[in-house]
Design goal:
The protein contains 3 helices and 4 strands. It is α+β, with helices and mostly antiparallel strands. A 4-stranded mixed beta sheet has the order 1-2-4-3, sandwiched between helices. Strand 1 and strand 2 form a beta hairpin. The longest helix has 19 residues. The two termini are 22 Å apart.
Amino acid sequence: MQYKLQHYQRLKKNKDFQSVLSNSKKVSCENLVAIYQENDKLTTRLGVAISKRVARQAILRNRIKRIIRESFRLNQSLLPAMDVVVIVRSGEGIKDKKKLREIIDKLWKKLIALSQ
């Protein structure tokens, strides 16, 4: 298992985000929405979107993104080859680390179940 999320495992370019957002499917779990699209690559790629309206402080937004990326890194071997954009919605669940980890794990389980 890799200890770092590699550059090719991230959605970075605007056109990649737009591609996923325009022709894709959705799965949601409480405060998180995963928008996904199968890709022809061998890896799963992740993008995270969180607005200032959801978390005013940059420290909190970055912490949420780190938790989501870490959870993705640990579950990436179970996910099929797809591009995933996780959109964070406002709510109380995102401010508590433990609760956020539980929500994101439920989201990955839903995505894994859809692929089988």
